[in-house]
Amino acid sequence: MTEQRINIMEPQKPAEQAVQTEPANQTPKIVYAPITDRFVALLIDYGIIFIPGQFIGNWIFKMLGDRFDVFWLCVLLGSINLSFILYEAVFSSGNRTTLGKKLVGIAVVRQDLEGPISFSRAFLRAVGYYISTILLFCGFVIAFFDDRHRALHDFLGGSVVVQMRPKEGWEKLLLRILGSVLLAAFAWFVYVQFFGNGKLDDQISIRRARAHLRKIAVLEEGHFARYGTYTNDLLRLSLLSGDPVQFQRDTQKVLEPKGFKIGVKGKGYKIKAVAKDKDHTVVVYESEP
After folding, report:
1. Are 239 and 185 in contact (CB under 8 A)?
2. Does the structure show a pLDDT above 60 at 211?
3. Are residues 188 and 48 in the same domain?
């Protein structure tokens, strides 16, 4: 990845300066990065890590199949976010800038404007993103009220974000519009994940419920092979599992006690149950005719 060196103390280099210059007889004016510019850069940087992580996660999801549970989800999300923290720490320190900030034309510097922040400060700053998230995003809201647009992670890292180059009017407008749209989309995504119907843990609960129905179906086939008929008695099926106690525990763990039913008709059967997700989703498995 190409590094862009930062030196806010050399105003004679227009391509690298973190200020918009005034006439020669005046002190260069520091321009602090707008919140929308920063948000656009943050989403670009997170996408650099998150998008490849999603492809890897989908591959792991397919490879593990029914064994993919909350533990593996935590491992996957933990790896993605740790990679993001390290990426931010490395490319926000030592005269470097992240790809997202480079594209937007901003950079992270010390709060006294005396140069870049150290790796340890950049690491603490990156962790601050997640502290703000845990605080229901209140750490980010601080930026709307600070005169230098500093969020909680900026205070933790002892940093400010400044513009690296002057922007044309159309570029400013584009970044404002794009930043506003992305902010609204992000707020909607957070609402859906935490309060709506798209929670990941609910999706996993539904997947595990369906997987358990397939296990019951295997026992049904075993019962048919041994006795020549299917059964609607779950207890009889649990005895065929080899460990009926554990089978009952697994059933209670992934399925609601009410709503379970096995319907047997001739040489076929239909299993119906309710998953333990927020919406109590009905899951069904039906044998082939």
Report:
1. no
2. yes
3. yes
